[in-house]
Each structure stands twice: as C-alpha cells, then as structure tokens.
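can u do me a favor
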C-alpha cells in the first residue's frame, strides 16, 4: 500500500509518499518521495492577516504538482493538512474551497490540538516511563504535550512560532501565557523532566551538534549551537552550514523558543527523534485504512 501526506505549514509545504512494509509485528514505512517547497504562507498571514495573490498562484501550482505526484505514484490514500498560517488567514477557507473545486483535493484545516495529537503518534515509540515535555515548534505555533509515566496528561497550543517571531507578530501575552502554563503543569513531584523536540529547526540543531537521531543533548549544547549560528551571517549559514535560506533566518528564533520552554520546565536535556507531523499523518492513514479495509500484511 502507498500512502501520501502533505503538511502545509507556515514556513514550508512538505510532501511525502511511502510504501507500507511489514516487518514482524512492527509496520515500517519506506520513503518513495519527499519534497519540501519553501512557500512561506506565514510571511503573508502574520503580517497582513491573509494569503497574498502571489502566494495563492504559487500554492495552486504546487497543489496541482502534488496531485500529479499522487497520480504518478498511484497512491492508495492521501491526507492534506494545513496548520496555523492557513487556519488563521482571512482567506484560508476560501483557498481550501478553491483547491477542492478546481483540483478535487480536500485540505483539512487542523487545530493546534489535532496537530499535536498527530505528531504524538510518531513520537510515542521513543518514550519510556519517565516525565517528558514534547515541544513542537512550527512557523506559526508551538505545541506542548506533557507526559507522565508514559501517558499524556496535558496538551496546549500557543501562537508562538519561528516565522511569527521573525515577523515580530508574536505577542508578549502569548509568551507569558506559555510560561504560566508550563510552570503550573510541570510539577516537581513528576521528577526529572526530559524534553522531546520535533520540527525542522531542532533537527538541524541536533545535526550541527553531531548527534544521531534518538539521542539526547543538553540544554547547554543547544545554547552553544544557537550562539554559533547567531554569530554567522545569512550567507555563512547557507554556505558553511548548508542551510536552506528559509531555514537560515528562522533557526535562531526557533532555538530561543525551545530554550525558553526547557528553562521554564527545568529540563536539562532534550531528545530529538527524526519524526514530525507528516510521520504522524502516515500512521493515522495506515490505521484508518486497516480499520476500513481490514488489510492484512
């Protein structure tokens, strides 16, 4: 079975199609294609409140291209999800309707909670019987999920994200709200807190720290890598650190969000599994198809 997912984020739009493989009791996904296109919808939405005409033209071309990919790979099922930028845009729903009317593709505008729930599907296998604070920093929002003894007990989405901070459209009240939520819910009685980071920026920080996915790094190391990046020009980040331009300008704001959350939660280390929203979407699609079609592997 071939499954395709499209994550329409605030900083970029990701497409992935994978084949479902069987390996004993555990199901694995083999990646057939992955495309990340740097269409920054958050630039429009967080500064003007709506998606610009120029971005709509590019977006429609991109959706048409992804539809062609679905057809060429003969995907058995697919899922298009849009996060904070599109759900906050004044013309976000009209664009969703335009895509459906012209291309026959359904885009789901998911809430922060739904985004967190999908991502949690992908990280659950990395967690043990400890206390974890899952931090998922996107372009427009940050999702926090608190796990105690391996069970999720609290979740919350905040309008604080890398593109939003870069555009200076983050409000101080949201930072204060996030700090209060963390300090109220991450209790000393839960013991040592381990942060779990997902998102392209923390993955890049992890890579620059020369660590393998699934391993742990200290908050001190995160700060050291952040400081190193901050001391470089945009050109140096792109050419010396091999960053995409749309990663080079948001990675420091994103790093600051991870660091602040870890400090408020008194988390001294962070684990970075190489998974994210698209991986959770694949698991959701697989589960849906298994239930509906009773597929056996």
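np, heres the sequence
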């Amino acid at each position: 079975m071939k499954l395709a997912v499209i994550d329409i984020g605030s900083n970029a739009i990701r497409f992935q199609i994978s084949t479902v493989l069987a390996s004993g009791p555990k199901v694995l996904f083999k990646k057939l294609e992955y495309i990340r296109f740097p269409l920054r919808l958050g630039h429009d939405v967080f500064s003007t409140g709506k998606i610009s005409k120029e971005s709509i033209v590019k977006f429609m071309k991109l959706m048409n291209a992804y539809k062609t990919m679905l057809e060429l790979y003969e995907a058995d099922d697919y899922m298009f999800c849009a996060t904070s930028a599109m759900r906050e845009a004044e013309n976000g729903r009209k664009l969703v309707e335009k895509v459906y009317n012209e291309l026959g593709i359904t885009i789901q505008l998911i809430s922060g909670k739904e985004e967190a729930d999908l991502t949690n599907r992908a990280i659950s296998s990395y967690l043990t019987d400890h206390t974890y604070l899952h931090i998922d920093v996107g372009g427009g929002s940050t999702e926090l999920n608190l796990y105690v003894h391996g069970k999720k007990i609290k979740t919350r989405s905040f309008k604080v994200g890398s593109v939003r901070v870069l555009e200076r459209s983050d409000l101080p009240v949201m930072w204060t709200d996030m700090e209060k939520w963390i300090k109220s819910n991450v209790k000393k009685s839960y013991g040592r807190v381990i942060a779990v980071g997902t998102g392209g920026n923390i993955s890049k920080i992890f890579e620059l720290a020369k660590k393998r996915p699934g391993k742990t790094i200290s908050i001190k190391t995160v700060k050291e890598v952040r400081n190193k990046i901050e001391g470089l020009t945009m050109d140096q980040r792109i050419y010396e650190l091999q960053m995409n331009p749309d990663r080079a300008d948001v990675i420091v704001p994103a790093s600051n969000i991870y660091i602040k959350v870890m400090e408020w939660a008194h988390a001294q280390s962070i684990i970075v599994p190489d998974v994210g929203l698209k991986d959770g979407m694949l698991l959701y699609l697989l589960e849906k198809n298994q239930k509906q079609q009773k597929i056996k592997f």
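The two ends are 10 Å apart (CA to CA). hope that helps!!
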